[in-house]
Amino acid sequence: MSAVPHPPWRVPLVGDALSLSARTPAQSITGHAERLGDVYEVRVLRYPRMLVVNSAALAEPILDDRGWTKVNGPAFRRLAPMAPTGLLFTDTEDAVWRLAHDRLQPAFSRAAMRRYHAAMNPVIAAHLRRWSASAQPIDVGERTQDLAYDLITRAGFGTRLTSTQRREFVDTMFVLIRTTNRGKVIPFLDAVLGVNPVPPHAQALRRHVEMVVDSGSSEAPLTAALSDTDPERGAPLTRQQIIDQAVVMLIAGHETTAGTVAFALYELSRHPEVADRARAELAGTGKAPAELVYEDIAGLRYLRAVVDETLRLHPVAPAFLRAARTPATIAGHRVTPDDWIYLNLLAIHRDPAVWIDPDSFSPDRFLTGPAPLTYKPFGTGARACIGRALALHETVLTLAHLVHDHELWSTGYRLDIEEFPTLKPRNFTLRVTARAAVG
Q1: For this UniProt entry, which residues form the secretion signal (predicted)?
Q2: Annotated binding-site members
Q3: Residue 232 carries which DSSP code?
Q4: What tens digit of pLDDT does each residue of 188-241 get?
Q5: What are the Cα distances from residue 104, in Å, to 101, 151, 414?
Q6: pTM score, whole prediction
Q7: Binding-site residues for heme
Q8: Is 403 part of any domain?
Q9: Is residue 6 part of a domain?
Q10: Is 337 within 8 Å of 325 (Cβ atoms)?
Q11: Is 217 helix (H, G, I), strand (E, B) or coil?
């Protein structure tokens, strides 16, 4: 078999570490794809060999759970001690993962989605009024983060937090995420010494999560699911398992949505004709966003296409890791179950073999038929994001309020993407005004 291409500057002991950006690793991996092609190899210290897959054709069979399975990478492994039984951190074959997954399923049923919708509508409207009341351009990342966290705590758990409490959680979360990212900057400790401590501030974050769970409403979907004792869905979750799942739901349930809304606002501010068309679609319902019921959101096909196109160009989770269940080959290169396969969505979602004019923002491409099998912003198979329907509904509803009631004014921002390791626009500012005040 031919040798697998690899980045330049491979050196003994550290491998390809010098070729990868510590600040923007996912983007640097994609940058190498332009020169190295559809598949190449990365080796860093004692981590497993990683094959980076950049084409849709090569990625498609790897999505099949029969031959491939999810792998947790270094960042997930460093966070795992914070919530060891959480859905993100346990193996698919682990009975604890199956128990928690089954317990949480009712929190994303149609009945639960109606409750989320009713709770989210007034919260979104209140936040956006504050956005448009600002005389200065708003920090979009900060505002979308606050909104998304307010939504998951209120709609999911029935807990009302102050803005200070929300800010403390978000700040603590980012400290933890930055701590996990230290392995990209100083990988020696994790790779050679096997250091995997509970990150600092983890206990403060868990205390906050316990407060959210304990002060929530028993009728709220996530609270009800986590405390459910129905024997048909297995044994009840223990107190630790409840808090572990809540940690995952609160972090993953707002961080990725906040990033998606921020990227959508970036694209809408650059494409006012898209915002106008979404506004016309809303006008066709004969309702203001606050009057929309859950079933109305499915009819907003163009606005949903805006979200899908945003996630194609800017997947907030830029990649996911898989492993072969048995020895296999990728583009003629042999892989074993010990290898990591990095499905690079930043490249796969822009593969010109699949997408026409792949770098352009064109929501219409999602109105002409089903998305390609390799469009996977929420992962794949059994380990696809359990809350993806809620995330999409929340994002569409938020954008419906924004384009109907507000104008978006560009500040000349040039896109700069930061990685935490999820992606979001860095230092993105935008002027938001109430439409009634325009003119």
Answers
A1: none
A2: 385
A3: G
A4: 434 433 444 556 678 889 999 999 999 999 999 999 999 999 888 778 999 999
A5: 5, 18, 40
A6: 0.94
A7: 385
A8: yes
A9: no
A10: yes
A11: coil
